[in-house]
From TrEMBL:
Cofactor: how and how many bound: Binds 1 Ca(2+) ion per subunit.
Domain spans labelled Response regulatory: 5-121
Main location: cytoplasm
Keywords tagged on the record: Activator, Calcium, Cytoplasm, DNA-binding, Metal-binding, Phosphoprotein, Repressor, Sporulation, Transcription, Transcription regulation, Two-component regulatory system
PROSITE patterns: RESPONSE_REGULATORY
Entry's Gene Ontology molecular function annotations: calcium ion binding; DNA binding; DNA-binding transcription factor activity; phosphorelay response regulator activity
Cofactor: Ca(2+)
Protein name: Stage 0 sporulation protein A homolog
PANTHER family per UniProt: TRANSCRIPTIONAL REGULATORY PROTEIN DCUR-RELATED, TRANSCRIPTIONAL REGULATORY PROTEIN DPIA
Top-level lineage group: Bacteria
InterPro entries: 2C-system_Tx_regulators, CheY-like_superfamily, Sig_transdc_resp-reg_C-effctor, Sig_transdc_resp-reg_receiver, Spo0A_C, Spore_0_A, WH-like_DNA-bd_sf
Organism placement in taxonomy: Bacteria, Bacillati, Bacillota, Clostridia, Christensenellales
Pfam families in alphabetical order: Response_reg, Spo0A_C
Length: 258
């Protein structure tokens, strides 16, 4: 059993304490330090050497981008999850280029942060040839987590509208598989009603999300996720095909009963 250390750099003290409390009660993640100041936060990180860092872009002293620069200048490799208030592609790209592994858009539930931390730890220890076992509240990831993991693997970024629309559509398709046969008249309107938008905007946003994934060229990752060579080259599925593909995978894995 691994007891991993997490450092939190967050200007909102209440949110930082919510994260700390959730980790303490539901995981084996130990919060080794909390700071709302970027300069003090860098010192804390260098003194405690945490396994994962939760880093807000808005801090006292220096901002999150500058913290990323200073961590990179130190020569040590840190696993950093950036927390930001803006769903701006340029901001996300900048954070990733400076070494962030994930970008979480606020507000988000502590469960989401815990899930991303678990992924980073498992990837880091797997790369090092070590086994990792961390106690979680659930032995099986939730449906939302499973879908999010698939999206992350194939390159659908969480800051675009189609991300949430797609996730909701897949959840509907898992619960009601036959809905995939009536996407235009039933599925899109249900998603639109949930997000207070229009079916046409839902359709366009989902199409854009799929195009983003395929334009990133992660075809091997896409085929690996589904266990077969589903799509080759630049060929991409329709909205209904993609939703059905992911829903079928989740149903076959028994996620509905998890």
């Amino acid at each position: 059993m691994l007891h991993a250390n997490v450092a939190i750099l967050e200007s909102n003290e209440q949110f930082a304490q919510e994260l700390k409390q959730f980790f303490a009660e539901n995981t084996d993640l130990n919060v080794c330090g909390v700071s709302d100041d970027g300069i003090a936060g860098v010192d804390m990180i260098q003194n405690t050497n945490p396994d994962v860092i939760l880093l807000s872009l808005i801090l006292k002293g220096i901002d999150g981008f500058t913290v990323l620069d200073k961590l990179r200048e130190s020569g040590k490799k840190y696993s950093v999850i950036v927390m930001g208030n803006f769903a701006n592609e340029e901001i996300v790209s900048t954070a990733m280029s400076k070494g962030a592994k994930y970008y979480l858009i606020k507000p988000f539930a502590p469960e989401v942060a815990a899930a991303r931390i678990m992924e980073l730890l498992k990837n880091d220890y797997s790369a090092a040839g070590k086994n990792i076992s961390i106690r979680e509240k659930k032995s099986t990831a939730s449906l939302d987590e499973k879908i999010s993991n698939i999206f992350i693997s194939i390159g659908i970024p969480p800051h675009i509208k189609g991300y949430n629309y797609l996730r909701e559509g897949i959840k509907y398709a898992v619960a009601e598989p036959n809905i995939i046969n009536n996407v235009t008249k039933e599925l899109y309107p249900k998603i639109a009603n949930h997000f207070d938008t229009t079916p046409s905007k839902v359709e366009r946003a989902i199409r854009h999300a799929i195009e983003v994934a395929w334009n990133r060229g992660r075809i091997d990752a896409i085929n690996a996720i589904f266990g077969v060579r589903v799509y080759i080259g630049t060929e991409k599925p329709t909205n209904s095909e993609f939703i059905a593909l992911v829903a079928d995978k989740l149903i076959l894995e028994g996620i509905v009963n998890a």
